[in-house]
Amino acid sequence: MRPPPKALIFWVTGLLAYVIAVFHRQSLGVASIEAAARLGVGASGLSLLAMLQLLVYAGMQVPVGVLVDRFGSKRMLVAGAMVMACGELVFAFSSGLVPGVAGRALIGCGDAMTFISVIRLVNLHFSARRNPLLVQLTGIIGQLGALASAVPLIHSLHAYGWTPTFLAAAGLGAVAAFLLLTVLRDTRPERAAGTPPGLRAAWAEPGTRLGMWTHAATQCSSAAFLLLWGYPFLVQGQGLDPSTAGVLLSTLTLCGMVCGPVLGYLAGRFPFHRSRLVLAVIGTTAGAWTAVLAWPGRAPLWLLVVLVVVLAANGPGSMIGFDYARTFNPVARIGAATGIVNGGGFVASMSVIALIGVALDLHGETGTESFRWAFAVQYPFWLLGTVQVLRYRTIARRALAAQPS
């Protein structure tokens, strides 16, 4: 049975808001070198900007999840779009670290309200059979925002300068808010009795924590690469020119858009083998990074291409975590469960970003050797994530087996 046209219209509208949110989220990554010069900060300062943005994003996940369950998607999406527009406006006129931090914090806050709200629209308006693929498509199409924050944003910064570029970014947020107000229709859900117990129940569910560790272990590497450190790594650490680095970042995003439907189909077709897909993503990511970091001197271009192609599976792989949240939780607490899953992933990403910056500052330079040791901080995250995925997979399967048939 086909979904009703209204459901598709609502999803597309929410999806457009998410595309713009991803643009805002990743705009710092390709502007990192210019940001360091304009704000007068080093590697640790850049890490602080990205880390605080992600800290606000991650810290808001559970509260936003509860608010989405209570107030609905439309109100949260409109609020998120306006907050992100204000953040870009502040960032456009920033000339020091403090206003820069304030701008990125606002962007993290508004960004936190977006994805969970769109996922709730999918859960409410589409069947369970279509859900895994539509969640993947939401994440994949949302990466168009990452494309817009790569080569086009680099070009705009070089052609028009800092302030006009980020003023235009603020205008995108205002456009998103207008479309959401005029197109999206979303009735306020009934307030569920005992919201805190619902939140506690979502956390107590082993499937929720399986989803959280899935999201954390698969997302952290590509997130750190796209949000901040990929562009400096390719330009300063590997000696590529900025245009080639931009193409590689765009390639990562485009390949992710191809991987998503494949992983979405496999997750829906073989639900009891989802953890194997997750472990495969973690293993290939660790293997690709090992090859690049162990290469004597600068890695050849073909190996960097292999790296970005492998990293492309990270984002779609992390979406399997939201499928776990949907599978093991009722709709009444899906927002809270999704917030827990999403928050865990971004706490891991924030930690990786911060540790890379600290490692670079400790080495005192941004050459090949410095980046080699800095990116090695990812290995403990992959190891811990693998152990926890295996652990909660076992617990979740036992819980399912104990349920009455």
Automatic annotation (TrEMBL):
SUPFAM superfamilies: MFS general substrate transporter. Its main location: membrane. It is a multi-pass membrane protein. The chain crosses the membrane at residues 45-64, 76-95, 101-122, 134-154, 166-184, 210-231, 243-265, 277-295, 301-322, 334-359, 371-390. Coiled coil: none annotated. The keyword Zinc does not apply. InterPro entries: MFS (IPR011701), MFS_dom (IPR020846), MFS_trans_sf (IPR036259), MFS_Transporters (IPR050171). Residues 10-397 form the Major facilitator superfamily (MFS) profile domain. Keywords: Cell membrane, Membrane, Transmembrane, Transmembrane helix, Transport. It holds the Pfam family MFS_1. It is found in: Cell membrane. This is MFS transporter.
